[in-house]
Every structure is written in structure tokens, then in C-alpha cells.
Design a protein that fits this description.
It is a single chain. The chain has 2 domains: 162 residues, P-loop containing nucleotide triphosphate hydrolases (Rossmann fold, 3-Layer(aba) Sandwich), CATH 3.40.50; 167 residues, no CATH class. It contains 13 helices and 9 strands. It has a 7-stranded mixed sheet, sandwiched between helices. A two-stranded antiparallel ribbon has the order 8-9. Strand 6, helix 4 and strand 7 form a beta-alpha-beta unit. The two termini are 39 Å apart.
């Protein structure tokens, strides 16, 4: 596959690597065909997309020496790529990443970015605002970037606020990953003709990205459930998990583009009810507490139960939301989603958890519990949660 080359610029700590991993689903970096350039950049690619991402070293605007070094390194590398003349080293798009949690973008920062890439005079540029956690942040940051690029000799083709990975602010509020699939579409459209992927291929790839981001949200919320469950208080039912489950469902709905309205509210509430006050939920709790031969502390057992309920609701919601996203089911079909969630929390789950419990160490920690649950709900995952 012929590939385009996307150059990423940004200050240190802006979140470029997290964003690249979210776009490509990989953390593996490679060389870039020109000897001696690996200190200045890392290259990431995925066989499924028609572009590779070149991540430059982070700029340090508060440290003049390091900032000048970064500028010179990128300039040197760009000059060598341009003189090489090979399609494998020609830059097709430049992405300037800006930290959305910063309230200021100094003109000199933009000047330094533009100075480092001056050799690519006709290559289109877009701005990516990372860590765009709220709507008000997005609006303010877009205006900030527009002002920063005003009256300069290079214009930008678009501004894209993103949250590269889900972020749990508290047990009852999670910021979902968003804007990543829209960014992938924009990048593809700005690539030269002959390199762009088809609309179908982009849609298929973005569906897989949504799945990965959704599963990351479930892992995050499951961890919150395990933490809440481990608190030494009675665990008579699953109502204590409602804030976590509500935050998770809202996050997943946002990933799949499901709007918040009265119809979706009823749909979401049905999911919550199945996982909390239903006969199925109470039966799951009773069955887990009665697993033969289980020999763990009460707090550990409660943590397992809480995590299992959150994970079951999360994975069931992903299945339901994806069906709605693809137009295979309707948000109005309450009976259907109720059946999906009941099946997710049924006898088969108890059997899987009973088997997986045998892998727990004698005194399991939170991450041991998380990895056990991960093996039950997402057995294809290979990355373990480490301390």
C-alpha cells in the first residue's frame, strides 16, 4: 500500500504519543529510511491505514536551548527528507498539536513550529487540540488557535479538538474519548489523490477504533467499580454502582454518536435497571457469593462482584450501541436491549467467573482482580494491567 506521511509537532507533554496510539492502535515505533534520524523522530504506522505518523521530539517553549535544539533537529530532518526526493520521505500533511488544558498559546510557539517546517511551503497544516475535556474548553481553545494563527504566512485547513483516551475524573464522571475518528476522516481527505482510503475502508477502520476506545472506557470504569466494591461496607445490591454505570453508559453513547434525548434516556435507564434492581442482577450477586470453594476476603469478593457488574453492563452496552450505530436496531427497542443485558449477566457469566477465579493469587490486589475480569469479558486482550 502506498502511504502518505503525516508530521506531528507539539510541545512536550501535549499528548502526541497518546493521540497517535489512539489513531493507529499501536505503540510500536520504527525508523524512517534516513540513517541517523531516529533521535529526532519516531515513526508509527498501521497496515490498515494509508498513512504513517512521524512524531517529532517535543518542543520546550520555556527552555530556550532545548527549544532551539528541537527546531534545528526538525529543520535538519525536513531538509534531508526534501532533498532525498523519495515518496517514502515526502511530507503530505502537518499536524500541530496544542494542549487543550492550557489557556494560552503564545505567538512565538506557533512561530517556532512554522519555522521548523518552513521547507514544506505548500503542505497543508491542521491544528489538533488535545485534552479537550468540555464543550466550553473546546470553544475557547478553537478561538485561541484561530487567534494564534491569524496574520501569519501559513494558514491551517482545520482545527480538531480531541480527547485521545477516556479519562475518569471521579467515579461518577468520565470524559469519553472523542474526536479521534473525525480526525482520521479529516486526515484521509487531506491526503493526495491516489493515497486516500475509500469511504468504506475508513468507516470500517473507524468502527474498530470506536470499539477499542469503548473497551478502554469499560476497563476504566470497571477499575472504579472494583475500588468502590472493595470498601468495607455492606454490599446488599448493585445500587451503589449506579453513578459509575451511568457515567460509563454516557461515555459509550458519546463514542458511538448516540444523542442524549428522551428516547435514549429511557434506553439507558433500562440498561441501568437490569444491572441494579432486576432479578437478574440480584441473582448474579447471590450466585457469585455462593461460588463453591471460593476463599477470599469479603472486601475482595465485593470488589469482584462490583467489577463484574460494571464490566457486564459496559460490554453489553458496547454491543447494543454498535448495533444502533450500524442501523441494525433502534434506540426505541427497549425489550431488545433488556434481553441483551440479561443474557450478558446470566448463568454463562457466573460459570466464566467461577473458572477465572482459579487464576487469582492467594491475596489478590486490585490489578489481579482487573486482569481476571479482563480475561472473562475481553479474552482477546493481551495487555495486562500492571501495578
Amino acid at each position: 500500500m502506498k502511504k502518505g506521511n503525516i508530521l506531528f509537532l507539539g510541545n512536550s507533554g501535549v499528548g502526541k504519543t497518546t493521540l497517535i496510539n489512539s489513531i493507529l492502535g499501536t505503540s510500536a515505533a520504527t525508523g524512517f529510511g534516513i540513517e541517523g534520524t531516529t533521535k529526532a523522530l519516531q515513526v508509527y504506522e498501521n497496515e490498515e491505514v494509508p498513512f504513517r505518523i512521524i512524531d517529532t521530539i517535543g518542543f520546550e517553549p520555556t527552555k530556550a536551548f532545548q527549544q532551539n535544539k528541537a527546531i534545528k533537529e526538525v529543520q535538519k530532518w525536513c531538509k534531508r527528507c526534501a532533498s532525498d526526493g523519495d515518496e517514502q520521505t515526502t511530507i503530505d500533511l502537518i499536524c500541530i498539536c496544542v494542549d487543550g488544558t492550557s489557556s494560552k498559546l503564545f505567538p512565538k510557539t506557533i512561530d517556532d513550529f512554522l519555522k521548523s517546517i518552513a521547507i514544506w511551503k505548500t503542505v497543508p497544516i491542521i491544528a489538533i487540540i488535545t485534552k479537550s475535556y468540555s464543550q466550553s474548553d473546546k470553544e475557547a481553545n478553537v478561538k485561541m488557535v484561530e487567534a494564534a494563527f491569524a496574520n501569519r504566512n501559513r494558514s491551517i485547513k482545520g482545527i480538531y479538538p480531541v480527547v485521545a483516551s477516556p479519562y475518569l475524573i471521579s467515579n461518577d464522571y468520565a470524559v469519553p474519548a472523542e474526536g479521534v475518528t473525525e480526525l482520521i476522516e479529516a486526515i484521509n481527505e487531506l491526503l493526495p489523490e491516489g493515497i486516500q482510503a475509500s469511504r468504506f475502508d475508513v468507516d470500517q477502520y473507524n468502527l474498530e477504533r470506536k470499539r477499542r476506545l469503548a473497551h478502554s472506557s469499560v476497563v476504566l470504569s470497571t477499575g472504579a467499580g472494583v475500588t468502590v466494591g472493595a470498601v468495607p461496607i455492606p454490599f446488599p445490591d448493585a445500587l451503589i454502582l449506579v453513578p459509575i454505570e451511568t457515567a460509563l453508559i454516557n461515555a459509550l453513547a458519546k463514542i458511538y454518536g448516540i444523542e442524549q434525548n428522551e428516547k435514549s434516556k429511557t434506553f439507558f435507564n433500562t440498561i441501568i435497571e437490569v444491572g441494579t434492581v432486576s432479578v437478574v442482577a440480584r441473582g448474579l450477586i447471590t450466585a457469585l457469593k455462593a461460588i463453591p470453594g471460593i476463599n477470599v476476603a469479603a472486601s475482595v469478593l465485593n470488589a469482584i462482584i462490583a467489577g463484574a457488574i460494571v464490566a457486564a453492563i459496559g460490554e453489553g452496552s458496547i454491543f447494543a450501541f454498535e448495533r444502533i450505530y450500524l442501523g441494525l436496531n433502534s434506540i426505541e427497542d427497549i425489550d431488545w436491549v433488556k434481553k441483551i443485558m440479561e443474557d450478558q449477566m446470566g448463568k454463562g457469566l457466573i460459570e466464566k467467573i467461577t473458572k477465572a477465579l482459579q487464576t487469582l493469587p492467594e491475596s489478590p490486589k486490585k490489578n489481579d482482580i482487573m486482569n481476571m475480569l479482563l480475561s472473562v469479558f475481553n479474552p482477546k486482550a493481551t495487555k495486562r494491567i500492571e501495578e
